[in-house]
């Protein structure tokens, strides 16, 4: 509750909002890929099969990563804005 109060009570510039959005998207995509890869590895060969739900989740996470831009591109945008 306290964190939400701090976030909503401050006025952010458009540039700060852009940096925040890029950081959030980057973190979400990295976490999705990291966790789905671990889940597939835990299930072993079964995780790669079309029957496993984990395989679909990993495929969706990878497609999202490709569609929204690579993580390297996000890193460049974030670092360029932060270093200004």
Structure description:
The chain is 77% helix and 0% strand. The chain has 4 helices and no strands. It has helices spanning 2-9, 14-43, 53-67, 71-82. α2 (14-43) runs antiparallel to α3 (53-67) and α2 packs antiparallel against α4 (71-82). The longest helix has 30 residues, at 14-43. The radius of gyration is 17 Å and the shape is elongated. The mean pLDDT is 78.
Overall mean pLDDT score? 78
Pattern of helices and strands: HHHH
Helix content: over 70%
Instruction: Give the number of helices.
Output: 4
Low-confidence residue ranges: none
Give the CA-based shape.
elongated
| Beta-strand share of residues | under 5%
Summarize this structure briefly:
The chain is mostly helical.
Write the layout of secondary structure elements.
Layout: H1 2-9, H2 14-43, H3 53-67, H4 71-82
Helix pairs in contact: 2-3, 2-4
Descriptive terms for the model:
single chain; about 80 residues; mainly alpha; about 75% helix
